[in-house]
Write a structure and sequence with these properties.
SH3 type barrels; 41% helix; single chain; six-stranded antiparallel β-sheet; two-stranded antiparallel ribbon; globular; Arc Repressor Mutant, subunit A; alpha+beta; 224 residues
Length: 224
């Protein structure tokens, strides 16, 4: 069984390689920054992971997951995101306070308990932040999302995923009703001011700076 440290490394490499990158090599600088360790510490650990067959490592180029490593990463992500959803839906915790709890629980939850949670929640595909939950086979449902900042005036969208999950940003979005599943009309867009104007179905209006709008991915609503 992989240790929590191994699982954390594999999960972070997956995120950098596939969710924030294009499937190529992850540099030691990127990985060490993500894990908040020194590049030397990250390199030492990656060399050990390479010996186990979980990653491929090339000095001065970077690291990437093997198929075995990708399989483990998807399992850890499934645990983490399922636990986050459970904490919100069943225990009533706020979405900005669940990450650390899920980080601890993802390494100790049994497959049996995880599958019971899956059934209880109705086999969900998304966690509270809109991140995809891999199924039991490691398959992730495909979605066609784009940054809110790139939407044009007059487009109707649904909030799909929050890219920045820092506590204060999540609290800001929640206080403004900008949570996954919420429908919006892009009522205006001012590149000079760097502001996107939004209108909710209940008539409420909000303005969002371009910087914040880049951190929100949305799905375009298709006209009937």
């Amino acid at each position: 069984m992989a240790t929590s440290t191994v699982e954390n490394y594999i999960k972070n490499i997956y995120t950098l390689q596939f969710e924030q990158g294009e499937g190529g090599n992850v540099s030691m600088g990127e990985l060490s920054s993500s894990l908040e360790v020194t590049p030397g510490t990250a390199t030492t650990m990656v060399k050990s992971l390479a010996k186990t067959g979980l990653v491929g490592y090339t000095p001065r180029v970077g690291v990437q997951l093997t198929e075995q490593g990708k399989e483990l990463a998807l399992l850890v992500l499934r645990r983490h995101r399922m636990i986050e959803l459970f904490l919100v839906k069943v225990l009533g915790m706020d979405w900005h306070e669940i990450h650390d709890e899920a980080e601890a629980l993802e390494h100790v939850i049994s497959d049996r308990v995880l599958e019971r949670i899956d059934v209880l929640l109705g086999h969900p595909e998304l966690d509270p932040h809109g991140d995809p939950i891999p199924d039991k086979s490691g398959v992730i449902a495909e979605r066609d999302l784009l940054p809110l900042v790139d939407c044009e005036e007059g487009q109707r969208v649904t909030v799909g995923r929050i890219e920045d999950q820092e506590d204060r940003f999540l609290q800001y979005l929640e206080s403004n009703g900008l949570t996954p599943g919420r429908g919006l009309l892009v009522s205006g867009r001012d590149p000079q001011a760097g502001v996107v104007s939004l209108e909710f179905s209940d008539g409420a209006k909000r303005q969002l700076g371009f910087e914040a709008a880049r951190k929100i991915s949305v799905e375009l609503e298709v006209a009937p």
